[in-house]
Amino acid sequence: MAAQLKIYVVEDDPLFAKTLKFHLSLNPDYEVEIFSDGRKCIDNLFKNPALITLDYNLPGMSGLNVLKKIKELNPDLPVIIISSQHDVKVAVDLLKEGAYDYIVK
User: Fold this and answer.
1) How far apart are CA 8 and CA 53, in angstroms?
2) Under a CB-based contact definition with an 8 Å cutoff, are residues 52 and 10 in contact?
3) Contact 57, 85 (CB under 8 A)
4) In a 3-state reduction of DSSP, which class is residue 51?
5) Is the pTM of the predicted complex or chain greater than 0.90?
6) Whole-angstrom distance, CA of residue 81 vs CA of residue 12
7) Could you give all domains of the chain from N- to C-terminal order, each with its CATH number?
8) Are 38 and 61 in contact, with CB atoms under 8 Å apart?
9) What is the four-CA torsion angle of 21, 46, 50, 104, rounded to 10 degrees?
């Protein structure tokens, strides 16, 4: 059996995080871990996740700053922003910073 792909869900809304984890975990090839803030995610990058979903509005460290730090440490790691932020400029800025995609909740 192949190793599971590790996916990090960085989301401060516990209900949304658990819902996303549930749906992703329907695929037996995915191992999903939830982080309620960006610092915890960054501290666990050594576990080599295959993908990160990242909320834009997070406590402490903004999604933009988390994205920049992730890309500094691992430029090839795909990061999908999932946010309630509807501002097109914000989405474009995040994509320019290296986000793989931007999805509005």
Assistant:
1) 6
2) yes
3) yes
4) strand
5) yes
6) 13
7) 5-104 (3.40.50.2300)
8) yes
9) 50
The runs of H, that is alpha helices, within the chain are 14-25, 38-43, 63-73, 88-96
pLDDT averaged over consecutive 10-residue blocks of the chain (105 residues)? 88 97 97 97 98 96 96 98 92 96 95
Residue 51's nearest CA partner among 27, 31, 72 is 31
Contact status, residue 33 vs residue 44, Cβ threshold 8 Å: yes
**Tokens encoding 69:** 């730090």
As to burial, measured by CB atoms within 10 angstroms (0-12 exposed, 13-18 middle, 19+ buried), residue 2 is: exposed
Q: Which two tokens stand for residue 17?
A: 């995080």
